[in-house]
Amino acid sequence: MKKPLLSYLLPAVLAISCAPVAFAQGTPAAQPAAAKPFVTVNNVSIPQYIADEVIAEFRSRGTPDTPDFREGIREELIGRALLIDEAKKQNLDKTPQYSRNIETAKQMLLVREAVEAYFKKNPVTDAEVQSAYDSFVSKMVKTEYKLRTIQLNTETEAKDALAKLNSGKKFDQLAKETGIAPTKEYGGDMGWKIPPSLPPVVLQALQGVAKGSYTKQAVQANNDWYIFYVEDTRPFTPPSISELYGNLVQGIRQQKLAQHVQELRKSATVK
User: Average pLDDT of 99-112?
Assistant: First the structure.
């Protein structure tokens, strides 16, 4: 017997398909006429188009389309139908909370429809993606760093450590003696770090620090204090536009949608 996929697919199936559509009982205007049944549970048919929509949503997220996957979707939709049937037996669809949830779901669906309609008229263009990529790359540090660090709890401890380094104390030895970093036993060795993996405040502190030297001021990050030693550097090649394409498009969509909402707000009455 195949292991059911209910434990991880059902929440997503509910999120994808519960609000926008209902199982076929007749042929409402929002449903295709004579919708082909995908499966029937307790005399209630689940139309094929619902299964298709759920499958398409998972496929858009990169889920492989395999026989086991499709069987999993079938089992999840059957499980959903059984839960709906049980809820109706308990008259849960007649409670005030259910009515409020339905109204909230309608509003969220309208928001989604409005967003989709906007981007159909205002799609993200290749030129916009290229511009966003060029801007991103132009601001990116083009250097990888091989680092060691001394991580400390307080600024006072950091200043004391800097004083010892300035007096000739070896960095790796001091890291072992006073640091709290997980790599303290290895002299604070962090290995090679690419720019995107380092907080901006750290990248800023590393600017101008020569190989074989350390940051002359401690850096505060995540409530701790850090001193960094630059063992070596090498050029960093930014990721290609194809590697960043999805993130770039998402960022542009967010910006365009925010601008669209601001334009709508200009003519709105808000009290």
Answer: 95
